[in-house]
Design brief:
With 246 residues, this protein is of the alpha+beta class. The protein contains seven helices and 13 strands.
């Protein structure tokens, strides 16, 4: 029987042919799979793993990094690593309210309002919203969290003629999606999905590393023949997936 270390790990088997980082991963996976470490349980830090198991910092880092890539844990910069819930998913072709998605999973939604302002549209934005160049458009950036873990960064431009009161809404209580669909029901959607690396300011808000692959959804919607919104939705790849079915 291997000896117990601080109620968290057992000593590594020096006779094993597995690399050290794989043995560290196996111990963490076992605790997650057996339920000893439930969803959102804080996983020992790299420094703690080094201290308890006597491995190198590089070994501990690789183990945690690969577990995050596999979706076993979630790493939040400045907060630590946590046992991940089953990977969040959303229909890739539907237009869902992020707050409803999170509520359906029995978890809490929180919106951090990063920016709300009126801007003057340049040629590209005017074309996206089908308005004259120089027209006023509304702009909002909102960070959506699931149980205090950032899962979506929403960067949205809105046709001010269709939704003149957009910036008067309290987006900590109602999502832009819910408000806009209530005043301008969607009649048409155009959507593109791609894999990207996040920009530095996006990394900071999402609490992810510069190297974290992300899913980017670019979406435009129309109501009764008029363009309503053009939005970028950025999801950390390790925390979310998009799916579709017919």
């Amino acid at each position: 029987m291997p000896s117990v270390i601080d109620h968290d790990f057992t000593t590594l088997d020096e006779r094993s042919d597995l690399p050290l980082y794989e043995m560290v991963k196996a111990q963490i996976k076992l605790k997650v799979e057996t339920g000893e470490w439930p969803t959102n349980h804080r996983v020992p830090s790299e420094n703690r793993i080094v201290e308890m198991l006597g491995v190198s910092r590089m070994t501990a880092n690789r183990a945690l990094r690969e577990l995050a890539t596999e979706g076993v844990i979630t790493r939040v910069q400045g907060r630590g690593s946590f046992v991940a819930p089953k990977k969040r998913s959303a229909g890739s072709m539907g237009v869902r309210n992020i707050a409803e998605e999170i509520g359906e999973r029995g978890l809490s939604h929180h919106a951090n309002i990063i920016l709300t302002q009126t801007e003057i549209s340049g040629p590209d934005l005017a074309g996206a919203l089908e308005v004259e160049v120089g027209s006023a458009v509304h702009h909002s950036i909102i960070l959506h969290e699931e149980d205090h873990v950032p899962i979506q960064l929403e960067d949205r431009f809105v046709n001010a003629e269709v939704a003149p009161d957009y910036l008067k809404q309290d987006f900590s209580r109602i999502t832009p999606n819910a408000y806009l669909t209530s005043i301008a029901p969607i009649s048409r959607t155009e959507q593109y999905i791609e894999a990207v690396l996040p920009q530095p300011w996006e990394c900071k808000l999402l609490a992810i590393a510069r190297s974290e692959p992300c899913l980017l959804v670019r979406r435009r919607t129309w109501s009764s023949g008029r363009a309503v919104t053009s939005v970028r939705l950025l999801y950390p790849g390790s925390r979310y997936r998009l799916q579709s079915s017919e």
